[in-house]
Write a structure and sequence with these properties.
The protein is of the alpha+beta class. It is built from seven helices and seven strands. Helix 5 (about 205-220) crosses helix 6.
Length: about 325
């Protein structure tokens, strides 16, 4: 079948018109050419031009630190109380270590200077702290720091007053309810201040007078004419409305009250006694509890192995 020539001529004419239009108007995508490959756009600015803020990496927002204002006050109080208890325990341990060191020093001194030896000496134990009132013969024996000191020319302690003999004699004291302990070469009797004095004062209670009478009788029976230190102690609680300006003044007044009672109402004599006011400096237990504070409020009668006598110091009549 033959195509009419008129149809062929019409098709050729249409193609020629299309080519002419394309040549005249331009065409970005020729009909018979592949489109070019896409090129990545470079967003890096030229030198000297600031980088757009939108293209900068986002900074990580830091988590705010906790503030003390957000912590419960009760937690802070609990932590503070715990720290105070730990500090007090450390102080108590230091006190015990000092007493152990003092005891060891005394034992070493006793071994180096045996009674009756060539280096005879009379020693005042270091448990008598400086700052109190001491008998005239004993005062020169004190040195700074509480170290044991010796005074030449004084008579030695009798063999019966060795630490072993003092400890054995302590067991003969019939004082129920009174705390007793052997400390180095001295005997310590703890008399509760609450049984002796009214609260915050230095006046003896009736029960306190009876207690001092009982204790002094036993001490004079077992340790006749021994030197005795009257040492006052209190706890760390504030004095409040007390007339005393400091714990040391209170303990000094209480020690003086005990001294006056013992020298006027008991067989003990002034030449045997001296006073020490410790305030709250030497607790035996922690002050963190009510029971501990009660025990720390005390008067201690400290019995030394040395005795007064005609060769050491005249006994007042």
């Amino acid at each position: 079948m033959s195509i009419p020539s008129a149809t062929i001529r019409a098709s050729v004419a249409v193609c020629l018109v299309s080519l002419a239009v394309a040549a005249a108007g331009g065409c970005s995508h020729p009909l018979f050419q592949k489109p070019p490959a896409s090129t990545a756009v470079n967003l890096t600015p030229p030198p000297g031009v600031a980088v757009p803020a939108a293209t900068l990496p986002q900074a990580t927002v830091a988590t705010p630190l906790p503030s003390y204002a957000d912590i419960d006050g009760r937690q802070l109080q609990t932590q503070l109380a715990r720290n105070q208890d730990e500090n007090q325990l450390l102080k108590d341990e230091i006190t015990v270590l000092r007493e152990q060191l003092a005891s060891t020093s005394n034992q070493l001194a006793a071994a180096r200077f045996p009674p009756g030896g060539a280096a005879s000496a009379w020693a005042l134990p270091n448990t008598a702290r400086a700052g109190g009132l001491f008998p005239p013969a004993a005062a020169p024996a004190l040195q700074g720091g509480g170290a044991p000191a010796f005074v030449a020319g004084m008579p030695p302690s009798p063999a019966a007053n060795t630490p072993a003999a003092m400890h054995a004699a302590m067991t003969q004291l019939a004082l129920p309810g009174v705390e007793m302990r052997f400390d180095g070469n001295v005997v310590r009797l703890e008399l509760p201040a609450d049984r002796l004095f009214d609260s915050g004062g230095a006046s003896l209670l009736p029960g306190g007078s009876a207690l001092l009478t009982q204790v002094s009788g036993e001490v004079d029976r077992v340790f006749p004419k021994h030197f005795i230190g009257i040492e006052g102690h209190v706890d760390t609680e504030p004095l409040g409305q007390s007339p005393w300006a400091s714990p040391h003044q209170l303990t000094a007044a209480r020690a003086a009250t005990v001294f006056d009672f013992l020298t006027t109402r008991t067989p003990l004599q002034q030449g045997q006694l001296f006073l020490v006011a410790h305030g709250s400096n030497h607790p035996v237990v922690s002050n963190a509890s009510a029971a501990g504070r009660t025990r720390n409020r005390r008067m201690e009668l400290v019995i030394y192995p040395e005795r007064i006598g005609s060769d050491a110091e005249p006994v007042p009549e």
